[in-house]
Amino acid sequence: MSAYLVEGGVPLYGEARVHGAKNSVLPILAAAILCPGTSVIRNCPDLSDVRASMAILEHLGCGVRREGDTVEVDAGSLLHNDVPDELMREMRSSVIFLGAILARTGEAVLSMPGGCELGPRPIDLHLAAIRALGAEVREEGGGLRCSVPERGLRGCEIDLALPSVGATENAMLCACGAEGTTVINNAAREPEIADLQRFLRSIGARVRGAGSSVITVEGRQALHGGTHTVMPDRIVAATLLSAAAAAGGEVELLGTDHRHLSTVTAALMEAGCRVRSGEGRIHLRRDRPLKGVYPIHTAPYPGFPTDAQPPVMAALAGGEGTTVFVENMFESRYRHVDELCRMGARIRVEGRVAVVCGVGRLHGARLRAADLRGGAALVVAALGAEGRSEIEGLEHVDRGYHRLEDTLTALGARIRRV
Ligand code: UD1
Question: Is 157 exposed, middle or buried (0-12, 13-18, 19+ CB in 10 A)?
Answer without folding.
Answer: exposed
